UniProtKB/TrEMBL annotation:
Its cofactor is Mg(2+). It comes from Microvirga terrae. This is Polyprenyl synthetase family protein. The lineage of its organism: Bacteria, Pseudomonadati, Pseudomonadota, Alphaproteobacteria, Hyphomicrobiales. It comes from the Bacteria. NCBIfam families: FPPsyn. Transmembrane segments: none annotated.
């Protein structure tokens, strides 16, 4: 393990612990100002969906991008937690019987299995709205322009032109709405929207919190897009090569449903080559930030080399 890799691993694990504690506080049973009550069953199911697992890569990216620009503390952490809450909502809904119909997530029963389908739908709804509440709260940033920028960015990354639209494209790729042939351009767009948009915004949220100048923000967004694309290609490779026990979720779903991935279109060697090219793109986007960007450089390597 090189010194830089050691630093990255330490920072990632440290961030995961802090994020976990912050998420636990956000999901307490105590009603927040303006709330009438927090139903115990809903809160328990939300905690089941969010706590006790995950690498917390998205909030880590937010915190580290903000740190790169000199912004640290509670604000970037809260912004990262908001992105994680929204990500967890997407997983809960993605696991539903009407979507991917999965029984396992992070090695545990999915929310609709541990509770029921109606509760899972409400959990997703509540996590999504809580994410935006966290971003809109002055505790995240005293400057209303920063809060507005964060809310707008997450809405666009997660909505019809981002994650939700990508999920619809994903369902279409299964042939649910009629026969479909997916070419390389189609698969790239689907992945960019469904998975890449939120990962890219995780980095951009850090740029917003750090009040990046326009040129620096564009570079960080470019880095985020390259990392997001690399994440999905690596995920497709893992889906073919890793076991369900190792991943903590069902594997081989795309093959079962006849849905094309870049592994199908490029071949395994081509997919690995694609990952290497995306690492190079991410590296290039960070040129000019100096040695302080090393942790973000290691992050994209972690994404393509991870085994779970």
């Amino acid at each position: 393990m090189t010194p830089s890799t050691s630093t990255f691993t330490t920072r990632l694990s440290d961030a995961a612990r802090v994020v976990e504690a912050s998420l636990e506080a956000l999901l307490s049973d105590n009603a927040a100002p303006g709330e009438l009550a927090r139903p115990p069953r809903l809160m328990a199911a939300m905690r089941h969906a969010v706590l006790g697992g995950g690498k917390r890569l998205r909030p880590f990216l937010t915190v580290e991008a903000a740190r790169l620009l000199g912004a640290e503390g509670k604000g970037p952490l809260r912004a990262g937690c908001a992105v994680e809450l929204l990500h967890c909502y997407s997983l809960v809904h993605d696991d539903l019987p009407s979507m991917d119909d999965d029984d396992l997530r992070r090695g545990r029963p999915t929310v609709h299995k541990a509770y029921d389908e109606a509760t899972a739908i409400l959990v997703g709804d509540a996590l999504q709205t809580l994410a935006f509440e966290v971003l809109a709260d002055p505790a995240t940033a005293s400057d209303p322009a920063i809060r507005s920028d964060l809310v707008l960015g997450l809405a666009r990354a997660s909505g019809l032109g981002g994650m939700v639209g990508g999920q619809l494209l994903d369902l279409s790729a299964e042939g649910r709405y009629g026969p479909v042939t997916m070419g390389e351009t189609d698969v790239r767009l689907l992945q960019m929207m469904k998975t890449g948009a939120i990962l890219a915004f995780s980095v951009e949220a850090g740029a917003i919190m750090g009040q990046a100048d326009p040129a620096s923000r564009r570079k960080l967004v470019a880095y985020g897009h390259a990392l997001g694309a690399a994440f999905q290609v690596a995920d497709d490779i893992l889906d073919r090569e890793a076991s369900a026990e190792a991943l903590g979720k069902r594997t081989g779903k795309d093959q079962e449903k006849g849905k094309a991935t870049l592994v199908d279109l490029l071949g395994m060697d081509g997919a690995r080559r694609e990952c290497r090219q995306l690492v190079e793109q991410a590296d290039s986007a960070l040129d000019g930030f100096g040695p302080q960007a090393q942790v973000l450089r290691e992050a994209v390597r972690f994404v393509v080399e991870r085994q779970v």
